[in-house]
Amino acid sequence: MALEIERKFLVRGDAWRDAVERSLPMAQGYLGGDLASVRVRLEGDQAMLNIKSRQGGISRLEFEYPIPPDEAREMLARLAGDQVSKTRHFVRHQGSLWEIDEFNGLNGGLIVAEIELDHGDQAFAAPPWLGREVSYDERFYNARLAQLPFGAWPDRDSIIKELAC
Q1: Where are the beta strands (DSSP E) in the chain?
Q2: Among 30, 65, 136, 141, which one carries the catalytic annotation?
Q3: Does residue 13 have a pLDDT over 60?
Q4: What value does the mean pLDDT take over residues 133-151?
Q5: Has 141 been annotated as catalytic?
Q6: What is the pLDDT of residue 146?
């Protein structure tokens, strides 16, 4: 059984940009389900089908499979109603790889950093640009951002101010 353990944080300022190793544009759409999120994602010129359990928190079941990019584009166009677009930046800090998602479109202005861990209480060095943890706030899950974009949140402006520090 595949288990993803991931913590999410808001990202403050732009200092992280100098450490970006590579960036990857992503478009993803959700195909539905009550117990699981079924996502099709274009990652540059690659495509993945991902199934992730919907329970909240830092640990969730996750299964991921490569699929042909043409099929992913058709699924996005014809089957996925709710979609998210973002650029994923890869940044290393003291031996840990951080994935920083810079959202576009209706989620523009939101930047979230994720770190995948081997176990829930694993220690890691927090980069200076790391903001507050949002791992348990389901509004920050990509599937939820597709349904209720950041641009529609009543507290969007206060979060933007928090990120500017």
Answers
A1: 3-11, 20-30, 36-43, 46-53, 59-66, 82-93, 96-103, 111-116, 130-133
A2: 30
A3: yes
A4: 94
A5: no
A6: 92
The answer to whether the CB of 82 falls within 8 A of the CB of 37 is no
Q: Which two tokens stand for residue 99?
A: 């994935």
Per-residue CA distances from 34 to 17, 51, 90, 149 (Å): 37, 12, 31, 19
How far is it, in rounded angstroms, from Cα 152 to Cα 17?
A: 26
Distance in angstroms (rounded) separating the CA atoms of residues 20 and 4: 23
48: its two tokens: 């993945």
Q: Can you state the percent helix, strand and coil of the chain, rounding each to 5?
A: 25, 45, 30
Smallest CA-to-CA distance from 61 within 121, 6, 133 is with: 6
Q: What are phi and psi of 108, to 5 degrees?
A: -55, 145
**Among all chains, which residue has been given the structure tokens 């949002």?**
134
What are the chain's domains? Answer: 3-164 (2.40.320.10)
| Residues 94, 77 contacting (CB under 8 angstroms) | no
Which of 77, 68, 22 minimizes the C-alpha distance to 48?
A: 68
